[in-house]
Amino acid sequence: MGNRAAAGSGGCEAELAAQIEEDLRQKRPPDITALRALFGPSKGALPQVEVKMADLASYDQLLSGAVSAEGVPA
Predict the structure, then answer these.
(1) CA-to-CA distance for 57 and 72, rounded, in angstroms?
(2) What is the distance, to the nearest Å, from the Cα of residue 34 to the centroid of all Cα atoms in its chain?
(3) Residue 8 pLDDT greater than 60, yes or no
(4) Runs of H (alpha helix) within the chain
């Protein structure tokens, strides 16, 4: 699974397979760290995601039915 994850979704599975085959031909185990460096996504290509956490008290209100679907007290 780790080797497949190293390829990500960049369409480089064939190149990854070729590198693993070469490692095996050379009688050395594949180096997952090196494979991730070669075939993994670049850190700059990943989007920045901001998650705003809701106040936990709002869940209590929602579960008790004290707030309508529009967020207005019932």
Answers:
(1) 15
(2) 19
(3) no
(4) 2-7, 13-25, 32-39, 56-64
Single-letter code of the amino acid located at 8 = G
Write the pLDDT tens digit of every residue in 50-65. Answer: 999 988 888 888 888 7
User: Which residues lie across from 73 on neighbouring strands?
Assistant: 67
Find tokens 């480089």 and name the residue: 12
Whole-number CA gyration radius for the chain:
23
Instruction: Return the structure tokens found at 22.
Output: 């070469």
- Which tokens hold the place of 4? 């497949």
Q: Answer left, alpha or beta for residue 3, where phi above 0 means left and psi between -120 and 50 means alpha.
A: alpha
Dihedral sign computed on CA atoms, order 36, 38, 44, 47: negative
Distance of CA 38 to the CA centre of its chain: 17
